[in-house]
Sequence to fold (464 residues):
Amino acid sequence: MAPNPDTTEPTNPPGARTDIGTMVIAVMAVLALVISFVGFAFGDDGGGSASVGATGETELVLTEFALTPDTVNVPVGGSLVVVNEGGQIHNVMVEGTDLTTPDLSGGESTEFDLSSLEEGEYTIICHIPGHEAAGMTGTLVVGGDGEAEMASGDHSTGSATADVDWAAMDQQMLDSVLEFPAETEGTGNQPLEPEILDDGTKRFELTAQIVEWEVEPGKFVEAWTYNGTVPGPWIKVDVGDNVQVQVTNELPGGTDVHWHGVRTPFEMDGVSPITQDLIRSGEDFLYEFTAERKAVGMYHAHHMGHTQVPNGLLGVIQIGDVDIPRGRTISGIPIPEDLEVAQEIPMVLNDAGTIGLSLNGKSFPATAPLVTNAGDWVVVHYLNEGMQVHPMHQHQFPQLIVAKDGIPLDNPYWADTVNVAPGERYSVLINTDDPGTWVWHCHILNHVEREEGMFGMVTAMVVE
Fold:
């Protein structure tokens, strides 16, 4: 296994400053109370046993975002009635096994056959991306007499019992906010400098390898990476450049690299075995293409992509700079003719695999704030490598959407929330004209909060 990237630097994006001091801590504590987050479903306090359904069988209730109760007991050879009382699709999986229920829509139920399990204790989760991290995890105990008493509390969606310690929960949330911005090992999306060959070709080298990656303070996961970071290095070239990317595979199995959103020759598209042979463990492959036109793209594995990509095998490739509508007036807001972009950052969105709910490979409070000066114009590229849509909401500052999938828009438009679907890329221009620390997050709210506090897809725009 490859060693950790040898860095303990703060996880700021290129160009950002880290001397934000006590301003970030103080203002973030206040902003935690401003964000309009939803509550979680509180049923059993965790100490009760499973409820008994109308059929007399053990029942597990699914809501947003909890398994109620969080500990269920069934006899050896028994089964479990799973009921979805939530408004979203949920399921239940026994970790470490191939046992899982079908996906259940709200109001649906199923009998979960657990007769193949031996006596013991198992972890159960909702396997829909992001739902486990949001709190849908529990314990299955197989054995004993299988009898179950009605657990205390109402299992209906959104109910809460008098046993909830709201003061403690409030404090836990505030404490989690005060940890921002936290330092962790490893920084993704760092610019990768090419080797310039005699004919002017820009040559890059990528090594696919597994490393221990610190997603949030103290939480290390087994990440599949390019050059040891999540996301991999940021590759940026100019229109007309000849590009070479040498890929070395140090993974346990085969891989390939697809250049998502970038025009390439057929044999360079990165889809084994159709366009190329699989890059087997220990082998190399050289990708070569000409950067024909402007693009904001993603490079990622295509072979076994359902595993390799969510686990971190992804990066950003950009050709040229996005077009800025300088000198135009968009919805009554003038864009300066002499506008200069102070900073440009890619923000990769993920929600699954070992990386989980994250921005640029990190979960709050380890997400990097973007630090700017009042009056700066910055460009942000949202790239969704996850499995769900993520509405990215910027407090205070409207976002001018100037390009979609790297293609300039004839009619740019303003939005405070940008819906980014899997595989999509949006480029936005932001004028940070108001000092303060402004929260920036996915507006699917269980992607940013859980009972233990803030986490996941949250960061801040810090304007000095």
In short: The first helix runs from residue 21 to 31. Residues 287 and 435 are 45 Å apart (CA to CA). Helices lie at 21-31, 166-178, 305-308. Residues 1-56, 146-160 have pLDDT under 50 and may be disordered.
